[in-house]
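Appendix B. Raw example, untouched.
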Amino acid sequence: MLLQCHVASLGNACLVAQKNELLDRRHKLEARISAYERQVSVIIKLDDDVQWSMQDGKIPALDAQAGEASDDLLDLYPDEWFTPEKERITLPSALAPGEINRLSIKPIAMIEFELRKGQVMDALEGLRLALGEKSLRFQTEVRNANSQRTTHRAWDNIHKFDVDARKYRSTYRQARNALQRLSTDPTYLATLHDITDNDLKVAGDLTDERRFGQRSDTLPWFWRFGDAGNSGGPRMQECMYSDCPCAFPTNPPSIRL
């Protein structure tokens, strides 16, 4: 997914150095995929009748804000150009419904399920940290900017954490889609909701303590998911002394003035 985001960020005007770097990264990824497939072939025995899911997450969906790779980009490359980031990875979640039972790999599917749950937790933790840092930078840098130069630099930092937040959202969506295809724990799946663009916005109600008539006294669901209230780290500790969303407890009280 990281490589796909990198390709999307290149656009159509690639420099020779960027093409060479991309080619090098793809060679390394191809080597890692080949090593993985050799190892997993010992565990998961696939036959000629195996059916793959039409929504196996082979190409994780990228956020529209991050841009999408254009077909014109590939036209600029040599004929031998390859895209290992689009290769199908052998995982239980990539199989069509019923194939897990037919191939008797339910225990392996359970292992992937637990790993995907960890991926969800990591992605949501990263998302909360990125949004919290974005809110903190808005208060400490954007508000205190006293020149055009410092203002541009402050907003560059805001955009950086916004991009990070969208990357974590893409990771979360990929893991959530894989969990839905595994269909192992419906109760847990019911707690995973979509994350919209509005959820990624830092409302002025939460960043400006001087505003009256706040319209938002609740936070998006992922602020209260899992162990969000006990998130650690020096930046989260710093947020405890500010008005950024990450400073709110697991069950936030009303913030109406």
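End of appendix B.
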